[in-house]
Amino acid sequence: MSEETTLRQLRVPARLRGVDPAVAIAFGCIILLLLAGSIYSRNFLSLDYLLQQLKVASFLGVIATGMMAVILLGQIDLSVPWVVTTGAMMACAATAYGTTGSVMAIPFGIFCGCMIGLVNGLSVAYLRIPSMIVTLATNAVAQGLMVVYTGGFSPQDSASPTMRFLAAGYTVPGLPNGVLVWFLIGLLAVFMLTRTTFGRSLYSVGNRERAAYMSGIDTRRVTLLAFIMSGGLSALGGVLLAGYASKASQSMGDSYLLPSIAAVVLGGTHVLGGKGSYLGTVAGVILITLLQSILSVMQIEEAGRQLIYGAVIIGMLLLYGRQRPA
């Protein structure tokens, strides 16, 4: 153990030594945002406002969960915008086929997202095409297919009652179902990352793919499954968004690409893979959502928001991007 490490342990209380600094900073920023918002308006600390923000955050949280799996590999998924839109449009389209269509709407929307993820995964894992290139290409293809499907007009199909209930209904009084869905997916993600071979393989491949391969891990299969997971969860996010708005719309996923990446990075997941925790992603999602809310309340235009998102990501990359993966 180095002298520097020993001194650092002596300075940090024993209870805090296991806390990821990035996660602690993210939660600290959340508290600062709430305090800053409460100065602007007292409603920022009300229970109704916080539940509303959690409801909005749940859509981003579901999408960011899939993005985290890909970033843990040291890859990126830029097809999120139109995978979200495709999942929403196809789920709404299924409702036009009667009772059976309504029952199959959600599985069909997720299935379409998984298929796009499958194409991404096969291209990255087996054809060795850079993820940045292939996911951009599949995003463009998905956009083209949806434009052909709608003829360039706004989709006319509505969300099924189940989609609306899942996104905006209440099973537990006072707690939106969208938050429950995010909570359940979060539990599964934590279990997967900490208790399964696949979860541990994500970290191993992200740390050093060749070493993971030499140790017996099927790195191609892990990469393929991570992209399918990202596609499926992005589509589920689209289904929830369509349920929340009662219908799908063109480009409804465009505003989720940068926030989903930012939420994962802000939560401490290393952009080169191999390091990160789901608690950090949760903190990043809440932080981004609160930041969006405050910027909206302050009536900052979309261009200004994008500039702030970009500046925040660059700042966090300067803090964490140069660290070596664990």
UniProtKB/TrEMBL annotation:
Location in or out of the cell: Cell membrane
GO MF terms held by the record: transmembrane transporter activity
Membrane topology annotation: Multi-pass membrane protein
Keywords per UniProt: Cell membrane, Membrane, Transmembrane, Transmembrane helix
GO cellular component, one term: plasma membrane
Claim: Zinc is one of the keywords in the record: no
Annotated InterPro entries: ABC_transp_permease (IPR001851)
Superkingdom field: Bacteria
Transmembrane segments: 21-41, 53-73, 80-98, 104-127, 134-154, 174-194, 222-244, 256-273, 278-297, 303-321
Pfam families linked to this entry: BPD_transp_2
NADP among keywords: no
Coiled-coil zones: none
Entry protein name: Ribose ABC transporter, permease protein
Top-level taxonomy: Bacteria, Pseudomonadati, Pseudomonadota, Alphaproteobacteria, Hyphomicrobiales
